Structure formats: C-alpha cells, structure tokens
Amino acid sequence: MDKEVYHFVRAVGAVEPTQGDELYPVFREFFKRSNYFLLRDTLLIVKISRSDKPFWGVGRKYIEFLNRFDSYLLVLLTSKDRGWFFTKRDVNKKIRDKVWNLREEDDNYKINYNTVRYHENRFTSIEQFARRNELQTVKTAAASLNKKGANPI
Fold first, then answer.
1. How much is the pTM?
2. H or E segment at 95?
3. I want to staple 100 with a disulfide (CB 3.0 to 4.6 A). Which of 30, 40, 109, 145 is the partner?
4. Is the pLDDT of residue 145 over 50?
C-alpha cells in the first residue's frame, strides 16, 4: 500500500475488510491492490498521484461494481492529506458528462487535474475532509469503527 494512502486511511479511520467480514471474499477476489476500504458504512476508494500535473485512473469494471452499492467515495490524493473526494453521484455525473473519459486501451477512466481542481470537494487537511463528510471528528470515526470490531490498517 502506498504510504500516503496508508496515512490517509488511518487518519480518517477507514479499514480494510478482515477475513471474518462478509465482504472480505469479494474484496480480495475483486480488488487486487489496497486502495479499497470501509469508512463506517461507505466504501472508500483512495488513489494517489505524485505528478506535478496530477492524474489518476479508475477502471471501468471497478466503477460498475461499486455502482451496485448505495454509496461510495472516490478520494484522489496529491499527498497524504490533500486532494479531492467525489460521491457516487459526482463520479457518475463526471462520466456521463464525459468530463472523465474512458480510455479504451486499458479500460480506465482518466482523471486529470484540470477536471478536478476547481471542484468544491477539495480538501487540504484530514480535518477538512472529515468535516466535509460530516464526520464529527477523525478520532470519533476511528473509535466508532474500532468498537464495531473492525481492525484498523
């Protein structure tokens, strides 16, 4: 797992499903990389770009799979605590409006800085991410997850 992703998910209290969880077999079979987590009752997809002109890719099959769920958040990081987040609705609107285009060669939606930089869901700290996602505090979210028996990353 990328160190920035690790830092971010720990700070917000997100967890990977553990072997005893109902979702664990699905997660391990479908998701090969550690970019997919649970934040309370919401799936969280976290990607990192270290480029001067950030860009990210998200596979069409993953978006189609995630769209089966009630909600999810796509988090696009540029560092361990900065980036943007997009709800299921945001993601599908960007795809439908062809703001994020599918590259046929690798079946990934290409997301570049110019398509996200002015989005209102930008955050510049973990606390800002938490506030914007209506989490009381990062510590409260982490404590709540740990009480439910989920193992933190």
1. 0.81
2. helix 88-96
3. 109
4. no
